[in-house]
Amino acid sequence: MRAWIVWSVATLAYVIGVLQRTSFGVSGTDAAARYGAAPATLSAFVVLQLVVYAGMQIPAGLMLDRFGSRRLVFTGAMIMAAGQMTLALTESLPLAIAGRVAVGIGDSLTFVSVLRLVPAWFPVRRIPLVTQLTGMTGQLGQILSAVPFLALLHADGWTPAYLGAASLGLIAAIAVLAFVRDAPPEKVAPKVTVRAQDIPGILRSTWMHPGTRLGFFTHMGAMFSVTAFMLMWGVPYLTTAQGLSSGEAGAIVTFGVVATLASGPVIGYLTGRFPTRRSWMVIAIIIGSAAVWTAVLVRDEPSPVWLLTVLVLVISVGGPSSAIGFDYARSFNTSRVLGTAQGMVNIGGFLASLVLIQAMGSIMGAGAGLTFDGFRAAWLAQYPLWAIALIGVVITRRKARRREGVVPRPLREALRRTR
Fold it and tell me: Which long-range contacts (CB under 8 A, 24 or more apart) does 263-269 make?
């Protein structure tokens, strides 16, 4: 029971962290009015946050090994609360950007720290299930930002909404101090010290393994579309370009979160059953996302609600599919560099997301703005990223298999073994 209490409180902090991460995306049009910001400037808010998040992945892993999960989850919650409070109280654009940077720093410390608690508190046989539950539960933060946070924003205004989000962060931080411990009393939480002069060699050797790069391109190709949609441009696109009400847009976003939660266990099961076919699932997700976006973008008028729902359904599956990249990191790297490899994989999706978000803002700022035509031109920036990811997956898959001597079994034989 103690293990579940520790996990629940830490995961609650992660849920609130996801709320802090995604809150700006659902309030993009309100932010434009508050700060007098153009689309490109709005993109810079989220892009800078993602740059900080991605850049902090490897340092966060090193700090986690040194200080433990409890301290990092607490610190992350406090930093995010400070960032949200800054947004709530300021009308200065530079200060608002600093607030989002703080959110990115705190966010970068949270997820990896919560995952670190799982093997410390649960038996080996439960680790895969609890790890999956952690990622799935965290997505509830998107629902909190899309429904109650957005409702509070429209009902009471900017400052009360963001002060409410900051208050939740403070509550999470206090709960972590009260209930979370790095490991049970009978266990000693492992501490790893890496000398500064060893870091460049570790980073170079880890990246040069094709399995790490396969994970990077996997995470990249499956993740960036849904991240850009949920984190920044989704709600403005649905309301401004597609003509939906805020309630309808919130419902579609919520449906996307539900689709993410539902597809996670299925993808996890298929990954475990067909480990040598994981790349085909990734390729299918990338092609499927590109196909449904094409169906929406070729239209010269707003799409019907059912097509937009299908769009969100398909791209939302990309969220849990991107986790296959971490599975590659585990498969092809030793435990000594596993944290470094997973940090590199995690950078892939967020790097592509920030490139897309910034590119979309620049395209709309230089063209038709936040309009139907402006958004349609901006979403086309996804296609080069999909092409890069697909080429990367195909090339690094071949190199990784050759290096490790992996020979995929015929699909017919693999299917027979699952009966």
Answer: 263/316, 263/317, 263/320, 263/321, 264/132, 264/135, 264/136, 264/319, 264/320, 264/323, 265/132, 265/136, 267/317, 267/320, 267/321, 267/323, 267/324, 268/128, 268/132, 268/320, 268/323
- The angle subtended at Cα 363 by Cα 348 and Cα 360, nearest 5°, is 35
Same domain, 111 and 244: no
* pLDDT tens per residue across span 64-93: 777 888 999 999 999 999 999 999 998 888
Q: Which two tokens stand for residue 206?
A: 């880890």
The answer to whether residues 146 and 36 belong to one domain is yes
The model's pLDDT over 33-61, given as tens digits with 9 standing for 90+, comes to 888 877 777 767 777 777 888 888 888 87
Supply the DSSP string of 204-264, one letter for each residue: HHHHHSHHHHHHHHHHHHHHHHHHHIIIIIHHHIIIIIS---HHHHHHHHHHHHHHHHHHH
133 plus 4 within the same structural domain: yes
- State the Cα angle at 351 between 68 and 9, rounded to 5°: 30
Domain span including residue 286: 202-419
Longest dimension (CA), the chain: 64
Instruction: Tell me the residue length of the chain.
Output: 419
Residue with tokens 């966010």: 107
